[in-house]
Amino acid sequence: ITVLGLESSCDDTAAAVVRRKDGDSNGGEVLSSIVWGQEGLHAAFGGVVPEIAARAHAERLDLCVEQALEQAGLALAEVDAIAVTAGPGLIGGVISGVMCAKGLSIGSGKPLVGVNHLAGHALTPRMTDGVEYPYLMLLVSGGHCQFLGVLGPDQFTRMGGTIDDAPGEAFDKTAKLLGLGYPGGPLIEEEAKNGDPKRFRFPRPLLDRPDLDMSFSGLKTALRRARDTLVAEKGGLTVQDRADLCASFQQAVADTLAEKTRRACIAFGKPLETPVLAVAGGVAANSLIRAALQDVAAKEGFQFLAPPLKYCTDNGAMIAWAGLERFAGGEFDDLTLSARPRWPLDKAAAPMLGSGK
Ligand code: ATP
Ligand code: FE
């Protein structure tokens, strides 16, 4: 089975072609994966501007799909299905993608498969490493942070997650507070290399609670306070102050994620002899956080899996793969497929946009 996948739910316009490996129910071969980032369009605003994103997606999707097919060496007529992110995400972008996919489906007669963006992230280790169900997944991105029990292509148990900001959002907002630019994650990681992670003691929220919930919005407030104190004392931040703030912030996020992940491993138990802890989402790109999670997994007897970075952040291949799994199970959609701004993973039937439910 070969599937074309489209992704446009945030600030990346992406298209990819993925083929299931022969004689193996797990694992996909990425024939092409085109990702056009929009960072440049949003950098000046310190965050994604939905209207600008939607316009850019609408302008670029056609060409992005064309390139993905060309690089895969296939005509549209040669793919088996067209998968598209149908939510959750910035609704203008999601609609652009769904419209484009519907057009392609009508034009080619190929079935349309709506995909939950989070399912795309959560199923990525199946594509990259052929992981068996069930496995434990920590999804940490710009918009999400949750522990998922992944039981099947359409079966997820949400075990806990952030009750406010996602860690990526915290990285982005913190970078903005320090005047570093956008997206904040890589910039903070770079600054932190020269910083002292122990200089500022930022909170590790909710560690006193036994559940798997997390909170990251207080961290940003604590950092702002530390910054303001420094500015009040000496009229500004030195290069070292900035590096120390970044390192201390990053350490606090890593510590919190590591401790909650340890508890998630225990809660998930060991359904298989070697249980798997997989991560996905842009924050999984952070090497300190990766190392902390790897350490926890080793201690708890879990195999640790982090897909290559290009498949951790938003991309079309993960959507093609998630669509492929749905399609292989005999599921697909028709032209009534709707874009959903909200679509929790553990609730298959979310309200359709405009249905008033
Ligand atoms: P979602 O998938 O939840 O809709 P998203 O698409 O914005 O959100 P991703 O593309 O998976 O998320 O990841 C982007 C986020 O990852 C940004 O918030 C960015 O700051 C963060 N990020 C990227 N690299 C790093 C890094 N090295 N360290 C920390 N955070 C990082
Ligand atoms: Fe994403």
Automatic annotation (TrEMBL):
CDD domains registered for this protein in UniProt: ASKHA_NBD_TsaD_bac
GO annotations of cellular component type: cytoplasm
Claim: Membrane is one of the keywords in the record: no
Catalytic activity annotation: L-threonylcarbamoyladenylate + adenosine(37) in tRNA = N(6)-L-threonylcarbamoyladenosine(37) in tRNA + AMP + H(+)
Keyword tags: Acyltransferase, Cytoplasm, Iron, Metal-binding, Transferase, tRNA processing
Domain Gcp-like, first and last residues per copy: 29-321
Location within or outside the cell: Cytoplasm
Highest taxon, organism lineage: Bacteria
Cofactor(s) this protein cannot do without: Fe(2+)
E.C. code: 2.3.1.234
UniProt entry tagged with the keyword Iron: yes
HAMAP family assigned to the protein according to its UniProt record, in alphabetical order: TsaD
Function: Required for the formation of a threonylcarbamoyl group on adenosine at position 37 (t(6)A37) in tRNAs that read codons beginning with adenine. Is involved in the transfer of the threonylcarbamoyl moiety of threonylcarbamoyl-AMP (TC-AMP) to the N6 group of A37, together with TsaE and TsaB. TsaD likely plays a direct catalytic role in this reaction.
Protein name listed in UniProt: tRNA N6-adenosine threonylcarbamoyltransferase
Taxonomic source organism: Neptunicoccus cionae
